Amino acid sequence: MLFDSLFMNGEFQLGQTLKNEIEKWLQYIDSKGQLDRYKPRFSSSRTQRVEALAEISSAYFVDQILGYGILDWEVKTNGTKNVDFILKVGSGKVYAEVKSPGWEGELDVAERAERKKFPKYYKTEARHVAPWISIRHAIYKSHEKFLPDCRNIVIMMDDLFLSPWEIPGQENIALFEEIGIYGKEKGYFADTRFKNVSGILILGVLPSGEKVEYIRQYIANKNAKMPLALSL
Hints:
The chain is an alpha/beta fold and 232 residues long. The chain has a domain of 152 residues. 33% of the residues lie in helices and 22% in strands. It has a six-stranded mixed sheet, sandwiched between helices. The radius of gyration is 18 Å and the shape is globular.
């Protein structure tokens, strides 16, 4: 299995169901001729491995499950910046950038250096989480890569303590809140600040018995310069 050859040192302690699904992702990206460029990230830091798998799993999902073919990879856009891949949606192109915010970013500054040495879920600790912050951050970090006359989407496959889809209403706070009571700014789709972003696709992978369920939610930007409706 590709999984065993790439992660032979046991970096990931996973159940068999999720391991089998990751094997599908790896076989898929290998069939597209893209595996070699990911290999250095697999042997790098934990964060790099998670981000690489987020990109691969997102590509697998939109291509193999949703049926939107991928036309190109690592495409130059704005200056020296690039997006992760281009989708074929209908007769046109959609530029996609994948972001995978992790739980390490949710740690308090004072605890971060020490706490990162331990697993994501450690003992019985309780903490405050706000996934809406990560939705906004994913959009903010992506939008500068997008060209103004193209349809562009952010794909968010997170590794947070709790994902946005696990807490109702997070996407509404992040995107549509119109007063500015959260983070002292309005939701990112409430005006034209992020008009180059056509929408955001929030994904999740949920093992259930011997199968894996793909959580998916697409939210269109009503103020986008280049609107996009995406069928899931």
